């Protein structure tokens, strides 16, 4: 199990945001937990120093391209990039230094998977450079993939069949539990168990991680098959529940 660090960008700044508060039609509803006074490159340089490869930079809406490029330049080949990625810009972000591109919304259409677009991406950049973001929200007993900054539900359920199917097209999955993202109130345990029951390509879980105990929960309930990312609870993002040094130590002890 690895700690996968993150850099979330909103309006060109490193921020931590409550995922469920993102609404394009009501921007005033946005709940922001933290706005960094350090540039994106500072965070990328920190992760590089501690050799925490495979983390992700997520562009939450427009106006983040320059900030994302700055972070990638600080550690070429060390981080993945997501947010608005499609066939027209994927190769460009790889050329800018991303190890992988992370794609969600562009490969979903009318509530389902758009196979033609997915196959276009694989032909264009290769399966080994593609990460699929299957971030999801709960409906009943199921977790449905959500797109467009977690605002639109698809009809695609995150389950063993879906993961096995989509693993043929990509190198990894990134899965935010969007209902608990940014709330520092604990992980979505049922989702962790569902993901841990599937032996597939690498999966990074994100959402609700508070402390070392939650990392241990992900390790145990996820059968040591999941990596994890930490946002608002981390001290480098203004949190008080877990220090960056503790997360790095956990990573080094468990990878």
Secondary structure elements and pairings:
Elements: E1 6-10, E2 13-17, E3 32-35, H1 40-49, E4 55-59, H2 65-74, E5 79-82, H3 90-95, E6 101-103, E7 108-109, E8 112-113, H4 115-125, E9 130-133, E10 136-139, E11 142-147, E12 152-157, H5 160-166, E13 172-176, H6 189-196, E14 203-206, H7 212-221, E15 226-228, H8 244-254
Helix pairs in contact: 1-2
Characterize the quaternary organization of these chains.
single chain
CATH fold field value: TIM Barrel
* Cα gyration radius (Å): 17 Å
User: How many beta strands in the DSSP annotation?
Assistant: 15
Helix content: 25-40%
- Relevant CATH superfamily: Aldolase class I
The coarse silhouette is globular
Can you give keywords for this protein?
single chain; 255 residues; alpha/beta; TIM Barrel; 10-stranded mixed beta sheet; 8 helices; 15 strands; 29% helix
Describe the protein's architecture and organization.
- It is a single chain.
- This protein has 255 residues and is α/β, with parallel strands linked by helices.
- The protein has a single domain (6-254), classed as TIM Barrel, CATH 3.20.20.
- Helix content is 29%, strand content 24%.
- The chain is built from 8 helices and 15 strands.
- Strands 3-2-1-4-5-6-9-13-14-15 form a 10-stranded mixed β-sheet. It has a 3-stranded antiparallel β-sheet with strand order 10-11-12, with no helix packed on it.
- β13, α6 (189-196) and β14 form a beta-alpha-beta unit.
- α1 (40-49) runs parallel beside α2 (65-74).
- The longest helix is centred in the middle third of the chain and has 11 residues, at 115-125.
